[in-house]
Amino acid sequence: MQALAPAEARAAAMAALGKVGLADLALRRAEQLSGGQSQRVAIARALVGKPRFLVADEPCASLDPQAGEEVMALFMSLVKREGVTVLFTSHNVQHALSYGDRILGLQGGRIAIDAPSAAVSSTEMAQLYG
How far apart are CA 124 and CA 130, in angstroms? Predict the structure, then answer.
């Protein structure tokens, strides 16, 4: 990523915060943000570089259920609006089945499931992961 002039960096940061719905909180200190807001700031930070691909490792692990749903909905919005591909890991079977286009299930370091999410049942996932 190329370095930006300060004014360009500020404009890019504000645009990214707008994309994640946090432009109105731009002047808040990090410790004043909720877990969900902090996660959305992390996503905004990644968006400044205009990526085509985002990797999110357990993006909802430390969030309450509502904030987790908001973060996943944000990812899906970015996929649709920005054309960004999102690869996420999750131990939440419902998130994987609801938000993933494709499921890769690992067991013992090997791929146990590799299928479109519509072809994978929650029962199959429960059998794999208990």
Answer: 10
- DSSP per-residue letters across 87-125: EEE-S-HHHHHHH-SEEEEEETTEEEEEEEGGG--HHHH
**Interval 14-50: pLDDT, tens:** 999 999 998 999 989 989 999 889 998 999 999 998 8
On whether the CB atoms of residues 120 and 113 are closer than 8 A, the answer is yes
H/E element, 55: strand 53-57
Six-digit token pair at 16?
Answer: 């990214």
User: Which of 2-6, 42-46, 57-61, 91-95 shows the lowest per-residue confidence on average (mean pLDDT)?
Assistant: 2-6
The whole-number pLDDT of residue 52 equals 94
Q: Is the pTM of this model over 0.70?
A: yes
Classify 62 as helix, strand or coil. Answer: coil
What three-state secondary structure class fits 86?
strand
